[in-house]
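Below: protein 1.
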Amino acid sequence: MMPITEVMRGSKTGLCYGSTVDQKTCYECDETKAADQFTKNRRLCKACLSARNRDDYAAGVNAARSYEGVYARSIQRLYGMTMDDYDRMLRAQAYRCKVCRRPETKLRKNGEPYRLCVDHDHVTKRPRGLLCHRCNVIVWALEENHTLVPAIFAYVEQFRESLAA
């Protein structure tokens, strides 16, 4: 006969056969696992919690954890913008990059295009406009080191001259 030992189910401790106090039983998959397979004060194991969060994010069930909710919190925290401010800028730019006038082409894992990036002044943190990923990287590089422009032109021209030779 197996000894009766203590086991944790979620946040409750009870008596059970064949388990020890360093194990917990997940409420989702009903498997008994080591306590380190659970996050602090959670009833779900890490694997089930991760799967649930992933499903909620993809389905947009939880607004705070959806792509839109995460993005809204990020632009609020970083630039002091609301989604209404972002949408107003987007409409004013005809849903296109302010530099190249093209829509975003970089795609997320689900095949949808990313939102246009909020370009901002790195000193004041104030938004300047919405840019595609490619233009945002270029603006960042040039803002950080504007002497790159002549070096980039020289690099491209040197390559083109080598092809002509």
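Below: protein 2.
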Amino acid sequence: MTPMKITRKFNKKEDGQGLVEFALVIPLLLFVLVGVVEIGRIMLVFASATTSAREATRYGIAIEENANGLPHYIDCDGIKQAAIGIGQYAGIKVEDVTIRYQIFGHPVYHPVKEETWPYCGDPDFDADDIKFGDRIDVTVTGEYGTMFPFLNFDGFTITSNSRRIIVKSIKVEER
């Protein structure tokens, strides 16, 4: 017996079929890849802004004092650094962090009207006005912009806000 030779004769019409199919499919694949990358970046900015606002708020409600003896709830730089520690991966900077206080029972600062809430570091604000049960409000703003300029997309702002009740001190009595 003789071994069979298997040969394939190509039709002249099929010579460039693979190249044409590749040329038709590659734009779609690149479009999907760019979309996945951009959605991932949006999620990164969103998660970083949200987590950095929460982390800064947690720092602000801690009962401890910083190295200079300043309570955490009025340590503006410490609160902002806590936010930047997480948000740096999304490009969040010090100026993107806003710290305010929701103070109850004060004649000037109305607890519902946010425009009256004092800012951390405001020279007209007396930190002694903060009492147990008031809230710290941290807002972090992140900017999303596309990595691919050919998309012709301006981007948008992602803002996250976190509020928690300030506990100035806790008195523990032994029985």
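The chain has a mean pLDDT of 86.
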